[in-house]
Write a structure and sequence with these properties.
Shape: globular
Number of domains: 2
CATH topology of the largest domain: Quinone Oxidoreductase, Chain A, domain 1
Strand content: 25-35%
Largest sheet: 7 strands, mixed
Helix content: 25-40%
Distance between the termini: 22 Å
CATH architecture of the largest domain: Alpha-Beta Complex
């Protein structure tokens, strides 16, 4: 094992570096429930790029150098003595959020809401875009032989889709509107169809992304033009479906899109807010209130990795087409620039120079 641990480190806003001498994380596992992983595939998320470009997301501010990356998979190279369910050589997907304490949110199964949770690549916690990484074994999930490392890394965004569809109550026969056909909108589409949605409409400004959505199973694609008003778009959605959708999943965070989501959803339905935009937004709240349209937030996910692995292993969900670009870890800055420019769908970094396969 090399003496260094090549890592992608954000030093400050706009200052992204590939650092080769960060200390390895493979020390003193004895007596712990941690595992050391040789990282294999790590996807670049919009939040990684946002931290790079802006140095913060909301109240989370980069104040010291931070390793990026949280969509990840790897191979176990060392286990702590308390670890019973994993062994050296196991291929695993990593859930990046680990509760630090057994608080009320942990106890009631909503540990993603714990205010003290550790989360990869959210200040001040380091992420896992590096060659070697230490993580809680309880939040590493063994991958079946027919699930690739890249699919394992994509479980993180897929989990956002699972959590959003659960929050929205997607079930057999549901009609669903998804606002935004970026990576998160596309995984919401995949999950909604797998959970039994009968018809899904997806919107976006980009015809290329809508083409991908059609290939992934969207029943209707609606190209948004900047001059379209929210109520006009809502009418277009209703015309496509023949009725207003039961559930709308908003994945852009754009104020006008949130307005469209509320106007579009049928009375008694649900709007799920996934996308994060401005702290304050003007929305037709009274319209939602008098029609009993529930508005539900989403913050990451919880208890999703087992379902995601089952979906992938069974073939019910296929996330492979989402990966459009691959780079070796040594070309991380180029990979981040590709993501920043909005090229393709998902950019994947390959951290093991001896194994660049998916």
């Amino acid at each position: 094992m090399a003496q260094g641990n090549l890592s992608v480190v954000l030093h400050a806003q706009g200052d992204l570096r590939l650092v080769g001498d960060r200390p390895q994380t493979c020390y003193l596992l004895h007596g712990t429930i941690k595992v050391l992983l040789q990282m294999h595939s790590v996807g670049i998320c919009g939040s990684d790029v946002h931290y790079w470009q802006h140095g913060r997301i909301g109240d989370f501010v980069v104040t010291k150098p931070m390793v990026l990356g949280h969509e990840a998979s790897g191979r176990v190279v060392k286990v702590g003595s308390a670890v019973k369910h994993l062994k050296e050589g196991d291929r695993v997907a990593i859930e990046p959020g680990v509760p630090r304490e057994m608080d009320e949110f942990f106890k009631n199964g909503r540990y993603n809401l714990s205010p003290t949770i550790f989360f990869c690549a959210t200040p001040p916690d380091d992420g896992n875009l590096c060659q070697y990484y230490k993580h809680s074994a309880n939040f590493c999930y063994k991958l079946p032989d027919n699930v690739t490392f890249e699919e394992g890394a994509l479980i993180e965004p897929l989990s956002v889709g699972i959590h959003a569809c659960r929050r929205g109550g997607v079930t057999l026969g549901s009609t669903v509107l998804i606002c935004g056909a970026g990576p998160i909108g596309l995984v919401c589409l995949l999950v909604a169809k797998a959970m039994g949605a009968s018809q899904v409409v997806i919107t976006d400004l980009s015809t290329e992304r809508l083409t991908m959505a059609k290939e992934l199973g969207a029943d209707f694609q609606l190209t948004v033009k900047r001059e379209n008003g929210p109520q006009q778009l809502a009418k277009s959605v209703e015309d496509m479906l023949g009725a207003q959708p039961h559930i709308t999943i908003e994945c852009t965070g754009v104020e006008s899109s949130i307005q469209t989501a509320i106007y579009s959803t049928r009375s008694g339905g649900v709007v799920v807010l996934v996308g994060l935009g401005s702290e304050m937004a003007t929305v037709p709240l009274i319209n939602a209130a008098v029609r009993e349209v529930d508005i539900r937030g989403v913050f990451r996910y919880c208890n999703t990795w087992p379902m995601a692995i089952a979906m992938l292993a069974s073939g019910k969900v296929n996330v492979k087409p989402l990966v459009t670009h691959r780079f070796p870890l040594e070309q991380a800055v180029q990979a981040f620039e590709t993501t920043r420019q909005g090229l393709g769908i998902k950019v994947m970094l390959k951290c093991d120079k001896n194994d660049q396969k998916p």
